[in-house]
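Q: My labmate handed me this sequence with no annotations at all. I'd like to see what the chain might look like in three dimensions before we decide whether it's worth expressing. Could you predict it?
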Amino acid sequence: MLADRRHQLILRALRADGPLSVVALAEKVGASQATIRRDLVQLEDEGLLKRVYGGAAPVTGEDDPFADVAGVHVEAKDALAVWCADLVRDGETVLLDIGTTAHRVARHLHGRSLTVITSNLAVYEELQDDKDVQLILLGGVVRRDYRSLVGFLTEDNLRQVHADRLFLGTSGVRPDGQVLDTTAVEVPVKRAMIAASAQVVLLADAAKFPGTGMARVCGPEELDVVVTNAPVDEKTGSRLREAGVEVVEV
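A: Here is what I predict for the chain of 250 residues:
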């Protein structure tokens, strides 16, 4: 069995049954215990599970609420936001993802002749009184603690628009370049944003390599630029560049 298939089966078993021993995983997957142990080391390195005594446990939980992370890594987020704002040209249509880094990008777009589309309530509040910015708020179900709109209405709205650039957030980037999120309900919206955009710019501070997350948003081939505040590890950087992604350190 190919390693990728084993990894899928291991993660699926942990999500379904909770913590499992190496013996139990070997039986479920149909592989030797030695192979499972090696798989668990790799999957933990990629932030996809947590090893415990004798086995492994799933990575659970959601992103921290917006207010809890707004004051974390502020300088790094501001550096990314300034670079992203400088990338934008007047007259463009910009799509801003949820999260605190996208909110900081919005702070640097004041007074610009732009159209901004977002499901981020903090972005909406930041720009709502700016007469120069045409602001489009996507509909959907309100997640109050996360300051975002999600659901089929949000996805349907995104199918009706096109953006020149998307500034996409993430909770983690795997060494193979896969972009992850910890909250499954946000993933369909992120995918719809990618489909609606001509250019996808991923904002990922140093803590996002590998970061956390169990839900796959997209592969590296769907990204155009990755902006970070620290050197990307060699394996991840090589995979991104192989996929044609420009990696920018600010």
